[in-house]
Every structure is written in structure tokens, then in C-alpha cells.
Amino acid sequence: MRADLHVHTTASDGTDSPEEVVARAASIGLGLLAIADHDTLDGIQPAVEEGRRRNVEVMPAIELGTEHRGQEIHILGYMIDTGSGRLRSELAFFRDTRTERVTRMVHRLNKLGFPISMRRVMEIAGRGSVGRPHIARAMVEKGIVGSVEEAFDRYIGEGKPGFEPRLKCTPVQAVHIIRLAGGVAVLAHPGLSPDDGLIQALIPEGLQGIEVYHPCHAPEVREHYLRLCEHYGLVATGGSDYHGKEDKKHNRLGECTVSRRVADRIRDLARENRVKAGINQESGIGEGDPCGWPTG
Ligand SMILES: [Zn+2]
Ligand SMILES: [Zn+2]
């Protein structure tokens, strides 16, 4: 059984709905998916329900965007307690900072003479957390650019005239948020901004894994992070970082997978974390939880 532990949906910046992602997973024979949307848990429940119909296990997850020394660092949180009030309020804060940033960017683009509206950008985002891809799609719609890629390259990528930074938390804060919600914190795609010192610094803060298998990692990069995992006793995770069939990066669902054992190890760690975090099993991965993982 293969598991893809890094998948986005329309709940954040993916272009496939949670149901579509699960249906696609079933059609290519994936047994387990972790829905890891940016700063939101909204894609999890519908994916779990579709997963039940199609016999695909869905693991609850999240991807938090953070900043460290000017670099964007993503932290994945697996098996978080989706009922945690504290986690939800932290996520609401993240979402507010996203909306506020997009507003500033739309304003900048307007000043550059591009007639895109915040209302349309929010419509494109739907109920998902709004981000730059939604601005890009609004620009394509208006014929300002020919593609989402071009929007990033010319106007909204880092350092481009329409760019505005987002207020972000630090990787340490993200790891703490995930651990307080009983989750397993994993450094996402470290090959995109390599910093082994950061990994060392995050381990005592509660980091428990590294995303070793990711489409952007060349074989020697995987080898390097696999060795680090073995050295520090971290779990080596992996996933496609799929953002939908219309995404500019064209990551294919199931492009990077791990075995069931990895998912089991994450589940075991989460069970221990919950005990340490003092999370009531009843309100956690118990009956109230949409994923229905056994609590042991
Ligand atoms: Zn990421
Ligand atoms: Zn991602």
C-alpha cells in the first residue's frame, strides 16, 4: 500500500476539490492520502467522507508557512487534533494575515494600472484560504498575463512589482502549534531552502520528521536527508505536494509516496504526543474526530 502524505485541495491553493483528489487517488491505487492544505483544516472532513466511499484512508494534516532568516520554510503537521480550539484560533490568525497580504498586493497591482478586484480574487479562492495563485488566476482572467506562471514571473513573485511579504511565524512557533495540537511536526521539502542548522535547532523544539521524498528533491538530496533522519531518529516522510491538475508546478498525485509503515509510525508518534500534550483522547482522535483513527 502506498501513501502520498502531502496533498493540497481547493480548501487552500489546490485546483481539485477534496472529493476530486480522493477519487483521483483511488483511480491510481493509492491507499492513503494526507490532506495538508496551507493554514486550514477545511479540506479534511470532505476528503475523509469521500475516502470512506472509495476505500482511501485520509490522514488529517496541515502545512504552515513560516519564515526563517528571510527564507520561506514550510512545516507539516500530521495527525493534528482537528477539534483543538487553540489550533483553530491560531489558523484563523494565519488566514487573516493571508487576506490582509492579498489586499495589499491587489492594491499594488491596481496602482500599476491592472484592474483586478479583491472581490474577484476572493471569489476565485472560494471558501479556501486566499493566496497568490488566486491573484494570478484573476490576472489571467483579465488577460493581463497569459498564465499563472507568467503572473508570478512578472508581477507577484518575490521581489516583483506587485509583491508584498506576509507576516509569518517562525518555524519554532509552527512546531509548537502543531505539537500543542498533538500533531507530528515535519520539515517540508527542505531541499528548497537547505539549512541543516535549522533542522538541528528544531529537534529539541519538537520536530519529529523530515519530508525526504518530494518531487523537488534529486536522488542525492533524498539520500542526504535520509541520512539525517537516521542520525537523529526522525521519521522520513514523503508526498507529491500535488496542487491539482491545473497547477503550474505540474506535480502528479502519487509522484512521491511512502509505505504504510511510515504512516503507522506517524500515527504512533501522534498517540504519544497527545498523551504528552494532555489532549483528551475522547475529544481528540476519538469519536469526534473525522478520520476515525484507532486510539489504541
Ligand atoms: Zn510547501
Ligand atoms: Zn505543500
Description:
The protein is of the alpha/beta class and 296 residues long. The chain folds into 2 domains: 2-87 and 171-277, Metal-dependent hydrolases (TIM Barrel, Alpha-Beta Barrel); 92-156, DNA polymerase, domain 1, CATH 1.10.150. 42% of the residues lie in helices and 16% in strands. The chain is built from 10 helices and 8 strands. It has helices at 18-27, 44-54, 85-111, 118-125, 132-141, 148-156, 171-180, 196-202, 219-232, 260-277; strands spanning 2-7, 32-35, 57-68, 71-78, 184-187, 207-213, 235-238, 258-259. Strands 7-6-5-4-3-2-1-8 form an 8-stranded mixed β-sheet. Helix 2 (44-54) links the parallel strand 2 and strand 3 (57-68). Helix 1 runs parallel beside helix 2, helix 4 crosses helix 5 (132-141) and helix 5 (132-141) packs across helix 6. The protein is globular, with a radius of gyration of 19 Å. The two termini are 22 Å apart. The model is unreliable at 282-296 (pLDDT under 50). Bound molecules: zinc ion (2 copies). One zinc ion binds at residues 63, 74, 188-189. The site of one zinc ion has 4 residues, from loops.
